[in-house]
Amino acid sequence: MIVGASENDFFGSLRDFFGSGAWDVARNMAIFFLVVFWLAVAYWVFKDARRRIEDPWLIAMATLLGLVPPFVGALIYMLFRPPEYLEDVRERDLEIKAMEDRVARRELHCPVCRAHVDDTFLVCPVCTTKLRQACTTCKAPLETLWQICPYCETPVDTPTTIEFPPAPQRERPSSG
Known about the structure:
The chain is mostly helical. It contains five helices and four strands. Strands 1-2 form a two-stranded antiparallel ribbon. The protein has a two-stranded antiparallel sheet with strand order 3-4.
């Protein structure tokens, strides 16, 4: 019965430990830290929801989800939360608007010297490259693809293309 005596001693010491005041303090501290951690997770859900969601009702529901099923609610929130912060969405919208404004007011440059030119210029004032042709009647600058002047309805003279004679065929030297 030596084995039985040591088992009684082991379980007796466990019973003594779980019945002691040290166990009560350790258990209460663990419960306290779990409650504090649970509230911290719920607070994190609240702060994160405020940064990602505009609607106050949805923020309250997300916070409630972080509170009610302890610890699992935060995981569920993380699965279904919006992927971007509101600040990032607003910043991206501002960047897109700025790009659209830049494209809308597109500054024209000479294709040869890159000098700033106005959309009414026929010739670059810096390098004298021809930018547009003028209407034969009203002298308004015309785009290259226009078939008729939109200002005076005069048909646009398309520039004549110069046809070059075909290049003579050169004979290949035979290898061998």
